[in-house]
Every structure is written in C-alpha cells, then in structure tokens.
Amino acid sequence: MKHFVNTLILTFLSFQLYSQIPDTFQWLPDGAGYRDVTEQGIVETALPSRQEKVIVAQDLLKKANGSPIEIRSYTISQAGDKVLIYTNSKRVWRYQTRGDYWVFDVAGKTLKQLGKGLPESSLMFAKFSPDGKKAAYVSKHNVYAEDIQSGEIKQLTTDGTDRVINGTFDWAYEEEFDCRDGFRWSGDSKSIAYWQLDARKIRNFLMINTTDSIYSFNVPVEYPKVGETPSPYKIGVVDITSAQTKWMNIPGDPQNTYVPRMEWSGMPNELVIQQLNRKQNESTLLYINTTDGSATPFYTEKDAAWIDIKSRWENDPMGWDWINNGKEFLWVSEKDGWRHTYRISRDGKKETLVTIGNFDMINPVRIDEKSNAYYFTASPDNATQAYLYRISLDGKGKPERLTPANQSGTHSYEISPGGKFARHQFSNAKTAPLQEWISLPKHVSIDPANSIAQSADKINAAKLNIEFFKVKTEEGIEIDAWMVKPTNFDPAKKYPIVFMVYGEPAGSTVKDTYGTGRNRLYSGSMADDGYIYASVDNRGTPSPKGAAWRKAIYKNIGTINIKDIDGAATAMFKQYAFIDTSRVAVHGWSGGGSSTLNLLFQYPQHFKTGIAVAAVANQLTYDNIYQERYMGVPQENREDFVKGSPITHAKNLRGNLLYIHGTGDDNVHYQNAEMLVNELIKNDKVFQFMPYPNRSHGISEGEGTSRHLRSLFTDYLKKNCPPGAR
Length: 726
What we know:
The protein is mostly beta strands. Among the domains are: 1-148, no CATH class; 466-720, Rossmann fold, CATH 3.40.50. The protein is built from 11 helices and 43 strands. The strands form 10 sheets. The chain has an 8-stranded mixed sheet with strand order 36-37-39-38-40-41-42-43. Strands 13, 14, 15, 18 and 19 form a 5-stranded antiparallel sheet that branches. A 4-stranded antiparallel sheet has the order 1-2-3-4, with no helix packed on it. A hairpin with a 5-residue loop joins β32 (410-415) and β33. α5 crosses α6 (591-602). It is globular and about 75 Å long. 47% of the residues are buried.
C-alpha cells in the first residue's frame, strides 16, 4: 500500500534500486575513492584526483556464445581478487532479486558462472564467504554453497518448497519489513545462519488471470490478511562441511512474533536478532549461542503505538552497528518522543543519547570512530527538507550543520569510510538534482568549478510557480503544504484546485525536492491549463516532526488523517479567495487512493471530484504486518478498521468518482474494487470504474498502459473539474 506513482517521492536520496542487492556505487574499503559501473566496466576512481582505473573491463564479460554480460550489481571479495557479478535479473514481487551470478578472477581475467545446473535466473543474494573461497546463494527456496575453484555445489537445505522458504522471505516479510536477503555467512566461513519461513499455514489469495490464456487460471499468493497469524519462522545455522542445520531456540510463539533482523554479532558462535511481538509495539534484542541454540535477551523497548524498525540504516537489513571493538552498538529509537540515535553497551544496561536535541534524526549517514564523529541528516526547522549534521559520537556537544546555509532543499550524502570524502546530492522543488564530491568535515567541494554552488548559479530554476506554506486546522494542527499556481496567475480570479494525497505512515507528500508539484498522471501541463495543484501532510505521515505527530494515526487510519486533510483544505479555502470551492478535486494511489475515497465520502461538501487508484476500500483485506502495526489486531478493535474503511462511508458519495484498479494487484487486491463497487451499487451511486486487466499494483504492464492511464485521468479531470480561471 506504499505506491506513490505521482513520484513526487523522486527524492533521489541514496537508495538501492533493488533492495539488498549491492549498489553499483561502492566506496573503497580505505575510503580513498570509489567504484562504479561505466561503459568501460567496473571502474575505480581515486579521490581527490579523480584518476580512473578499470578493475573489470566490460569487453571481458562475455558468455561462451560471445554475448555480453550486463552488470546489474557486483561485490568484490575481501582480498580484492574476485568479483561477483549479478546479471539477467528477474522480478520477485517488487524487485528484481533473482538472476544469474558470475565470478570474475581479476588476476587470471577468467569468468565462471555460479549455479550451473540450476534454473536460469533463479539465484538470489549470492555472497562470497569471508575467506573468498566459496559463494553461497538461494535457489528455489534452498540455500547452496559453491566452491569457487572447483565449482563443486553443495545443497545446504533440501526442504525448500514453494511454501517452505529458506534463505529468503514470504510476501508479507518482503513487502512490510524490506526483508529479502535471508542468510548470513559466519566470520570464519564455516557456517551460514538463515531464516526459514513456513508459509504452509498462510492461506492463498487467488488472483485470476483471464488475459494470458483462453481458459482463465489462478495465481496464488501466500498472503496473510489482517487478523491472520504470520508465517512462523525459524533461525537455523548450517555447517558448510556437513550440511547439517542446528535450529536456534528462540523464545516466544513464532506464529505470533516476528524476527525481521538477524546478524552475526562479531563474537564467535553468536548471533544477534531483533524480535517483535505480533502488534509490533515491543522489540527485544537477543544474543543467540549457535553452539547450543540458547537465547539471551539483553535490550527491550516498548511503545504505546508501534516500534518503527525502518528508522534504522537505509537499505541495511541490520538495525544496529557495532562500535568500540564490539563493546557497544548504535541504536535508533523514538523512546523520548524524537527519533534519535543511542550508544548502548553490549549488555544493554548503559545507554548514551548521541543525537542530542528536540528534533528527529532522519537518517544515519556515517560513523567515524577515529574522529569521534557521527554524521546524520536532519532538518530541525523545516520538516520538508534534509541537511547533513555532525555530532560527537560520545554524545557530548551540540549538532553542527555542515550543509551550506544557502542551499535550501533536500540533501543526501554517501560518506566514505574514515569520513574524508562524500558524494553530495541536492535538489529542491525548483532545482533538478545536482551532485558534487566534497571533503569533510569542512564540506569543501573537491572540484570547485563543478561544485553544486557553481552549477546552481549557472542553471535556470524550473518554471514552476510552487509555494510551500503552513496552514492551521480548526483543531489547531499545523499542516505543511505546497501549492502550484496556474501560469499567468491572477489573484482576482478563481481557479479549480486539485489535491494530491497519500496520508498514511508509509510516506510524506510535502517534500522540498525535485518532482514535488509535478503530476505525472496528467497529460500536459496542469498550470498551463489553469489548475491549482496542491498537497498537504497530515498527522501520521513520517515527517521529521516528532513521534507524537507520526503516531497520532495509531488505530486512526481513515479518520484522523482524513480529518487533517479536510481541515487543511478548508483552511486554505478561507485563506485564499482565488480557490474556486465549487471545483475541488482530489486524487491518490494506494493509501492515497483510500484517502481520496474517504475524502469524497466523509467530506462530500468540500471534495467534489475524486480519482482513486488501487485503493484499500476495506482495511480488513490488507496484510497483517502493515495493518496490525498501525491499527492493532482486529479481534480486539475491529470497529476502528470498519470506521476507517471507505466502504463504510460509500453511501455518502455525492460528487464525481473515477475508481481504477489492476485485476492482477498482489498488494492491494482487486477484491477491494469489487467490494466497493457492490457498496456503491447497493446505494444507487453513479460513478465510473476502470479495471486494468492483469496489471499489478503499479499498473504499468502491457503496451500502452501508462499512456492510457494518463489519458483517462486527464479526460476525467477536465470533464468533471473543468480547468481555467473564472
């Protein structure tokens, strides 16, 4: 339910395109430069000289038949003598996390494919062993280890099926915890720790494919609906030599708890895991002795709403980072009302607040123990932006902003090991993404002639009449908002307004970053056609405005967020006389589609036209991990789920509704559309409905689909919320 499509979430912030598949940009271990993929192959670039060295030439990467191997990602062995290349990737639910892997020997310039005999594009998350002698991977839900020199393949698990999942995860874990890579090499290269999920008790949701065959057929997805217990897990440690697995003794009911994080602790024969209770409002860290399988809890955290495990390191399956030779670790928590980083002793008994202040740490960036420095992004004064800060790792002193004061907007950084250099990226709503290389801690451009400061002076800002502002609802809630005014705007005239909404905990829509204010579902220019385009961020969105702001939505999805959006809109109507309140439209996708429906149904006096895409019409149809995290367990408070669901209020529709859904949506199931349609029919409500046959949640598959969706959106909006000044 986290699909934004409008891509104002084009933040370009550091992220991996395929979660837990290594990025092509990688720092050298000593921080003196970086590697990346170019047309030449894998190229190493020294800093600050920018001198390049080809590590793996692209013309050497050819199969036996002479066809080239496309590098989707790669990893390099600790010794630097071998390169593991990922290619021929295929999609697994959201991301292309299965494919083929090849090992390139740097000295011998030879190439060898892993997993010969296994199905094409079936290998997942291949990793070198720490000693570089073997590689491990998952194929068809089993874990394998392969000797790189001899090519001998050893199958380490044999019980993997479509529903018994070793070394990776089921649909819900992948979607809601970002868990994909499900195994870890031990430091001595002698064993592998891995997850096993048993999805046999999870009921299949049967999607129906009616387009790819004369006879329709079912597409089953193991999908635990809210209120259903999750797939039970086990953590096993398999010996590479014997292929024997020892199962760890983890306390608690594995069918009513989760283990979203697991890693070797750095100590011999010891794992560390994070376990969440079913409601995800209690988190426990445990050490696991892999010799006897025993578990020892050492750090527990509770929250009245939920524990946000996604506020840790971006794209890192771990939630902690060891410092002080393993005697302490860093941990992110919202326990004092703000998202902060804490320095915690290994036994969990002593903790020190590192990011001191009444603000949210947005993302960790780099730990530099040698300089006693901790780098992170934050924006204490403007929740729509992000800047780089530095503070002493010992928790003393005050945060120091390093980002230049004259570069207002959103900044992201990738800092080298040792903290000497960084790749700095910047944009705002009017400035397309810019990049430079800087030295730290003084934030000095390595190449001043091509610095962001110089580039920003040379380019023309986007011709986008966007304004960021705040409004207060009648309840006194201060809401961040933006508005794009029409071309040749005349404040004496009245214009229609179109709101783009999301409104749930998975994302914010009011960001001072490039892409904000642009509607990619509209054919042409909304501003030129005479529309005001706007968005507001309600309570419950993940803005850096404190835990109370974010968690106000607990058990209130579909109520408090809708009230805030309507309150902000009505405040805007009063504040801006140029808004034509007879022409008010709203649109959104996924959670934003749900908000669109609720706004039309709950506040029909304000919202006259709505276009909802892939919406959750009935909260009881969505997955357990997401919905229970934010709403509780329906066996205890079912009335909250019903109250916040659009179908409950569908009888109130007065305006114009276009509802759109893909029939092959494995995320927000098409059943939501048919349930909503039934309710609207029952109440004699006239509306328009567009199913896209066999399209998934993104409605992008098939020739002409995206173009058709834009045409449909634009035509409906123009007919039902006519553009232009009056």
